[in-house]
Structures are given as structure tokens and as C-alpha cells.
Specification:
Radius of gyration of chain B: 31 Å
Largest sheet of chain A: 6 strands, mixed
Number of strands of chain B: 4
Bound molecules: adenosine-5'-triphosphate, magnesium ion
Helix content of chain A: 25-40%
Number of helices of chain A: 7
Strand content of chain A: 25-35%
Oligomer: heterodimer
Strand content of chain B: 5-15%
Shape of chain A: globular
Chain lengths: 216, 303
């Protein structure tokens, strides 16, 4: 459960990217954050993932208020989320498998268990045959699926995806969306930030429409 | 507990990977660290051998006490009693009485002296004592010499402590210089590690950023760099130990040859196990310190 009340984020420099926003996303729900470029979608995702901290208001995730949580507790909160970044942030100095292993290494899994789970995640997104490939050798859609595998490998309770289909053709985008619908079906809370309105008919999400940082 | 172990093992493995993934720069860093540790280590071995040599040089520990020419055997007995008393009080005092007759006999045996001695009307030599205190520190020898020379019928006290004093002062100076040198090179090692780790952190900036955002603790991010620094330092220490031991091996033959020429048996020695352990551990510790400083500073730069 994610509950935002009067949530505001002001960046250094004074710009208020998110202004006085209140909403609730229930556990197991699918939510869609939509809005124009610069509306504050990425900022809101980062606030939920506790990468950015609220300037004012409160943001309670699974019972913990991220606005007041001490810094040393943040890493453990972040592990509840599966994060898909707008710019993916894949690591190009290692194989696809090693990219997916990163969250498991952070969680301290033994190497054997970690490899088993990473391969299962790669299989889920259809990339197991490419496990040894460097991400640079993957197509745009494959890179996006690799990012999804890394996000879900540690079995997060909330999946946060920022523009997961940007730069993809309609077919690849549709395949990606199917993946999110699958995760939603097995009970994962899925929050997608996108300006793609066609998704609304596909999965009937809880829509949060942002405009210049405000919720419409 | 097992997660903790897994993470440390993973960090160590990552450190090994990073060391071996850039063999040339690793080799250069190891050489820099190894040489930085070799110089003070070699200096230490050298001083240690010099000290040993100085301790063994005869005469340093001895005080010769010459009686008045006119002193009687009773006077000599009196001195011997006083020596016994000192020994009873403080212990650890050996001495040997050399009667004037024995001294003359010895002189006679010296080449070219027999005739001269024979031509003497009477024994010109006094009774003497050779005193050998256990405590051979120059200051203690000096003090004992002063006490002895104040005793009745003692004509002259000769001690070789002037040389011993100079030698010990030289050793002290050497040790001080060595400490300064070691401090300097230790700082050099920390600096080398600091720099390699900084480059490492920069190279890993992308991973560090992602890892942080998906829940890595500060410790998780820092750990591999600490291991890297410590590992690099330890390997540098091992290299230094190998260089010092190799150098000693090369020097061993000529040194013992030189010693034989002076009629002494002397071989270079080095504290083998301890030395290797000290260099490896010291290198690891300094490397860890350099990594600690570097990571704290560099992480702030990569955000
Ligand atoms: N780190 C930052 N520092 C200062 N301003 C920022 C920062 N990140 C974002 N902003 C500003 O905040 C506003 C919202 O940015 P945000 O990235 O959240 O928008 P968005 O909805 O994700 O846009 P897009 O669809 O283009 O990704 C923008 O005006 C942006 O310039
Ligand atoms: Mg964005």
C-alpha cells in the first residue's frame, strides 16, 4: 500500500516537480502515472522508490513514512521495490546474467541460489538464451526486458517502471506490457509511468494524471 | 551470518577480479608498493645485522682493570672481594684475575717479544682483572668503569666503550632514519592505494549509482574497495619480502667471504617468517587505510 498525502518535492534551485499530491495505491493494484514531459512522473517514481526524499507532506509505503525514515534504513526500504529506470541503467561491463545478479548480491544470496533465480528471471522475459551476452549486444526491446528481469529477480512487492516502452515499436511495447500484466496477476503492485494513453484501455489501471507537478 | 559471509566472500572475489582484469596497471601498482616497502625492510635487516655484528665484536663488553705496579697480591684479593660484593648485589658480573706472572708469560709467547722480556730485570706488568658485566650497554659499562677506577690501588681502567658508544649512537641514528624512511614510504603506499582506488571508484561509478538506488548499503559498496586496497597492499608486501630475501641471497656469499678474510664467521640473517608476515600484514593494513580514505572521498564525488 502506498499512501501520499500533500506530497511535495522541491529540487535544489526551487523548482517544484511534485506539488501537494495526495493519492492511494492499494496492494496488488495496477497504477498508471501519466502526464506530459516534465509533468513530474519520474520524480514521483523516485519519491516512491525512496531515491528522492519528500520536501514536505508524507509518503507511506508498507507502513513506513519515507519522509521521516532515517537514511540508514533507506537501502532496506528500496529492496521492496523492483525498479525500471527511464534510462534503464544497465551495466555494460558485464553479461546479462551478471546484470540480473546485482540485486541478489546486494541481498546477500549465495552464488548458487542467486544464479538459479537470475536464470529464472531471464527465462521469464525470454532472455535465457542470451544470458552470457553483453547488454550492448541486445536490441532495444531486449535491453528493456533485461531491465525488467533485474527489477523482478528479488521478488519485489512493488514494481515501479518509468517509461518502460519508450523507443520501442508497438509490437515490442505490447510484449512488455503483457509482462507487467502477468506480474500484476500474481499479486505484485505495479506502478507504470508513461505518456502512452493506449495502455489505459489495455489494463484498466488506477490512473494518476500529473500536470506541472499537480494531480488532476 | 551466512549472508554476511557470502557478501564478504563476494567482495573478496570482486577485488581479485578487479585486480586481475587490469594486469598491467596492477603490476605497476604492486611494483610501486613493493619497492616502497623494500627500502625500509632492507634497511631494517641491515641494521639488525650491524647490531648483531657490534654485539659480537670482542672488547665491547669487557673492562680491563690494571693494578698499581706496587700493589700486592693482598690488594688484588681486596679488589676481588669487592667485585664479589657487587656481583652479590646486582649479579651478572663475570671476571677473571690475570696475575702479573701470567701476563708476562703471555707477552713472552708473542712473536718477537721473547728476547725483550728475557732481558728485563723484573716483571714490568701489574696484576689485572678482566671484568665482563652482563649489561653491556655503554652507559652501564661507563658507570662500572668509574666505580672500579676509584678503588684503592687501581692504576688504570680501560674500557672499549668509546667505540661501543659511537657504534650505539650510530645504530640509534640509523634506527631513527629508518623510522622516518618507513613513515615516508608508508605514506607513499597509502597514496598509491588512494589513487588506484579513486580510479576504481570512478570506473565503477555506474554500478555504484545503480546499486545504491536498488538498495545497496554503504558497506556493500565500500567493501570490495577495502578488500582491493588490502589485497594490493598484501601482495605488494609479499613482493617486498621476495625482493629483500632475493637481495640477501645475492649478498650472502660475498659477505661471508669478507667475514672469513677478517677471521670471523658471519652470515647475513633475516627474520624470515616474521618478516614476511610483518610485510604482508603491514602492506594490507596500509592498503586498507588508503582505500578507506579514498573511498570516503571518491564516493562523495560520484554522488
Ligand atoms: N535532479 C533535478 N534537479 C532539478 N530539477 C529536476 C531534477 N529532475 C527533474 N527536474 C525537473 O523537474 C521537473 C519534472 O521532471 P521529471 O523528470 O519528473 O518529469 P517527467 O514527467 O518524468 O518527464 P519526461 O516525460 O520527460 O520523463 C522537470 O521540470 C525537470 O526539469
Ligand atoms: Mg521521466
Amino acid at each position: 500500500m502506498i499512501v501520499a498525502s500533500n506530497l511535495t518535492k522541491r529540487y535544489p534551485g526551487g523548482l517544484e516537480a511534485v506539488r501537494d499530491v495526495s493519492f492511494t495505491i492499494k496492494s496488488g493494484q495496477m497504477a498508471l502515472i501519466s502526464g506530459h514531459s516534465g509533468a513530474g512522473k519520474t520524480t514521483l517514481v523516485k519519491l516512491m522508490a525512496s531515491i528522492e526524499r519528500p520536501t514536505s507532506g508524507s509518503l507511506v509505503v508498507n507502513g513506513q513514512n519515507l519522509a521521516t525514515l532515517r537514511t540508514s534504513a533507506l537501502p532496506y526500504v528500496r529492496r521492496h521495490f523492483g525498479l525500471i529506470f527511464q534510462d534503464q541503467k544497465l551495466l555494460f561491463d558485464r553479461s546479462a546474467l551478471d546484470n540480473v545478479l546485482l540485486p541478489l548480491n546486494i541481498a546477500g544470496l549465495s552464488r548458487r541460489d542467486a544464479i538459479r533465480r537470475a536464470q529464472a528471471a531471464l527465462d521469464k522475459v525470454g532472455l535465457l538464451p542470451r544470458e552470457k551476452a553483453n547488454p550492448i549486444a541486445l536490441s532495444g526491446g531486449e535491453q528493456q526486458r533485461l531491465a525488467i528481469a533485474r527489477a523482478v529477480v528479488n521478488r519485489p512487492t512493488v514494481l515501479l517502471a518509468d517509461e518502460p516502452t519508450a523507443n520501442l515499436d508497438a509490437e515490442s511495447a505490447s510484449a512488455i506490457l503483457d509482462l507487467f500484466i502477468d506480474f500484476h496477476r500474481v499479486g505484485v503492485t505495479v506502478v507504470l509511468a508513461t505518456h502512452d494513453q493506449s495502455w489505459i484501455e489495455r489494463c484498466h489501471p488506477n490512473v494518476l494524471r500529473l500536470d506541472h507537478g499537480r494531480l488532476l | 551470518m551466512s549472508a554476511w559471509l557470502t557478501q564478504h566472500r563476494a567482495a573478496l572475489a570482486a577485488a581479485f577480479r578487479r585486480l586481475s582484469s587490469a594486469p598491467l596497471s596492477t603490476l605497476l601498482s604492486l611494483l610501486a608498493i613493493g619497492i616502497a616497502l623494500t627500502l625500509p625492510a632492507a634497511g631494517y635487516v641491515l641494521l639488525d645485522n650491524l647490531r648483531e655484528l657490534g654485539n659480537r665484536a670482542s672488547g665491547v663488553k669487557q673492562i680491563s682493570v690494571f693494578m698499581d705496579i706496587g700493589a700486592s697480591r693482598k690488594d688484588s684479593n681486596d679488589i676481588e672481594n669487592r667485585l664479589r660484593e657487587i656481583n652479590k648485589l646486582s649479579g651478572n658480573l663475570n671476571w677473571r684475575f690475570v696475575p702479573r706472572e701470567e701476563a708476562l708469560q703471555r707477552l713472552q709467547k708473542t712473536e718477537g717479544m721473547a728476547e725483550i722480556v728475557a732481558s728485563l730485570p723484573r716483571n714490568p706488568l701489574p696484576d689485572a682483572f678482566i671484568v665482563e658485566p652482563q649489561d653491556s650497554e655503554p652507559a652501564a659499562l661507563e658507570a662500572l668503569g668509574q666505580t672500579l677506577s676509584a678503588w684503592p690501588k687501581v692504576a688504570h681502567v680501560q674500557l672499549d666503550s668509546a667505540w661501543a658508544k659511537r657504534f650505539s649512537a650510530f645504530l640509534r641514528l640509523g634506527r631513527l632514519a629508518l623510522t622516518l624512511l618507513a613513515g615516508l614510504f608508508a605514506a607513499g603506499l597509502v597514496a598509491v592505494t588512494f589513487n588506484t582506488i579513486r580510479l576504481q571508484v570512478m570506473a565503477q561509478a555506474a554500478e555504484i549509482e545503480v546499486a545504491r538506488m536498488i538498495g545497496a548499503t554503504d558497506a556493500f559498496i565500500r567493501r570490495p574497495f577495502y578488500y582491493y586496497g588490502a589485497l594490493q597492499g598484501a601482495l605488494g608486501g609479499l613482493l617486498a619480502a621476495a625482493l629483500v630475501l632475493g637481495g640477501l641471497r645475492l649478498l650472502a656469499a660475498p659477505v661471508s667471504e669478507l667475514a672469513t678474510l677478517y677471521g670471523a664467521a658471519f652470515t647475513l640473517h633475516a627474520p624470515l617468517g616474521q618478516g614476511i608476515a610483518a610485510l604482508t600484514l603491514g602492506g594490507a593494513l596500509l592498503g586498507w587505510l588508503g582505500a578507506q580514505l579514498s573511498v570516503s572521498l571518491s564516493l562523495r564525488q560520484v554522488g
